[in-house]
Amino acid sequence: MDRRTFVGAATSCAAHLLSISAVATARARRAFAATPQGRVVARELWGRLEEVGPGLWAMISTPLAGDRESGAWRTVSNGGIIAGRDDVLVVEATATDDGARWLAEQARELTGRRPTVGVVTHFHGDHCGGLAGYRDDAWQVGVRATRKTRELLGDGDPLPEATLPDTGSSVTVDLGGRTVRITSRDGHTASDVSIEVDDPPVVWCGDLVWNGMFPNYVHAIPSKKTVSVRGLLATDAGVYVPGHGDLADRADLGRYLDLLDDVERHARVALERGDSIEGAAAAYRLPDGVGEWIMFSPRYFRVAFEAWQRELSGGGG
Is the pTM of the predicted complex or chain greater than 0.85? Predict the structure, then answer.
């Protein structure tokens, strides 16, 4: 693992795979390989592509199908392919250069054209660790990201100068007969984007949304995360592609919001009482209404409570 990949992984979900892959339960492995909801057009150890509409494919990552040495960690996060008449857009640069090349090759196989546009939703290494793969001579994908994402990645990563707007703004990309709206949001990090298609209504959420897995709050601004997720629900999409986990629908997003609200309530009560973060996290249990969710990392409750402590004490947001 080179330095760029290590630095990105250390602050993202890939870091937690290092700690849980050897001891992951059968339920955790099933969650990463949940039953496809759309027609599967490609399947590998590290992920599958599901058709979610004409010219639209969601890439569902399945890293717990194997370990890093087996190649199963090529992707780690979800992503996708959006095709228009003239251009093809790929969502996320995956965790590795090989993962990005695989997604680009799948785009060409499915559409007959190489992808010309890429979007990364935020700076975590499992979403943009493979940026160099898109810069190969064979692909030359023009990758877009926010200014904040570029800043957080640093100068060593091959992001172009082109940037997306600040939080709260949107830009549209015309792929030819299909318009994609890229909306800058925040909450999972200080710089997130969603990728939205209206016909049919499908939204790629990045790590603002996790489905069936408790989310990573390591760089979160929790109150803003909740606001952003409510904004995603307001898009009236029929399909949501989360950053991790299986495809989601509106009911899944509703349960996810219930979870975010429940974490907030418990964190606020614990902080008001002066409880220790460690003790409050150890005592926390998922609400019954959200169903069965797995823990991507055994530390994630504590990370969530720490994020609320950071925000409520004025140290974040």
Answer: yes
